[in-house]
Amino acid sequence: MARRKKIYEGKAKILYEGPEPGTIVQYFKDDATAFNAEKKAVIEGKGVLNNRLSEFFMTGLGQIGVPNHFIKRLNMREQLVRTVEIVPLEIIVRNYAAGTMSKRLGIDEGTQLPRPIVEYCYKDDALGDPLVTEEHIAAFGWASQQDMDDILSLALRVNDFLSGVMLAVGIRLVDFKIEVGRVFDGDFQRLIVADEISPDSCRLWDMETGQKLDKDVFRRDLGDLKDAYTEVARRLGVMPKTAPVTKPTLIN
Ligand code: C5P
User: Which one of 6, 43, 56, 142 is most buried, by most CB atoms within 10 A?
Assistant: First the structure.
């Protein structure tokens, strides 16, 4: 069988040419990176979890009419998605202060924000994805005013959906990042949610204990990343039931 053509390899995913024009196979790796890939590790099983979780979120978004690239899951690590032309922005929505916002503005992590705040970063690894304003975006032509209106609307709809889904399982959606891409239908172009939505790209805190269930566990060495992601998947009912783990009994 002919080998599939690799289109792109990123930090956490590989994209292969899909079986039909306009499709791409998105493969989720086990690699975890943080601080613009200065910190790296392989977390066995992370790719499987993120493939399932991204499927879960994208499918749910599709059901409430939020357009996204997901077509179907192919296997444990791969999903078929629509080809898009990625807008070179990382769109961050924050409900509570954390991470770079806390650092930049001196606001304690966990402080509730007066309303969801949307930020834009320019997607460029070499520059460390710098924060940009809508002025930069318009002046450099990364997105038009119509695109920005659509991006804001998509980002806030994703926020409403994800916040609700998480709240229902006792998890606070602190913040998240999405990416959007252009698809062309004849002469028309529209924007859809692309890339992935997973605990790699969200901050998720247990509502009762404040325990972190996202990539900060890896960034800040807070424990086992796979356990944290498995807990999110378990609460959402995403992973197929597995046999209970029996710990060996110590005999004195
Ligand atoms: O680091 P910062 O606080 O700006 O991150 C905000 C949110 O965006 C976090 O949920 C983080 O996981 C996500 N993010 C991401 N990819 C990046 C930068 C941030 O998924 N390159």
Answer: 56
Q: What is the DSSP string of 158-184?
A: HHHHHHHHHHTTTEEEEEEEEEEEEEE
Residues 101-148: tens digit of each pLDDT: 999 999 999 999 999 999 999 999 999 999 999 999 999 999 999 999
Closest C-alpha residue for ligand 1 atom 16: 201
Q: Do 25 and 36 belong to one domain? A: yes
d(CA 134, CA 114): 21
Range of the domain at 36: 6-84+224-250
Q: Kindly calculate the radius of gyration of the chain based on its CA atoms and give it in whole angstroms.
A: 19
From the CA of 3, how far away is ligand 1's center (Å)? 34
Task: Write down the pTM of the prediction.
Answer: 0.94
| Nearest partner of 28 among 5, 4, 39, 44, judged by Cα | 44
Do the Cβ atoms of 74 and 80 come closer than 8 Å? yes
Residue 100: which residues within 8 A CB-CB, separation 6 or more? 131
Q: What is the CATH number of the domain that holds 116?
A: 3.30.470.20
Q: Which atom of ligand 1 is nearest to the CA of 174?
A: 10
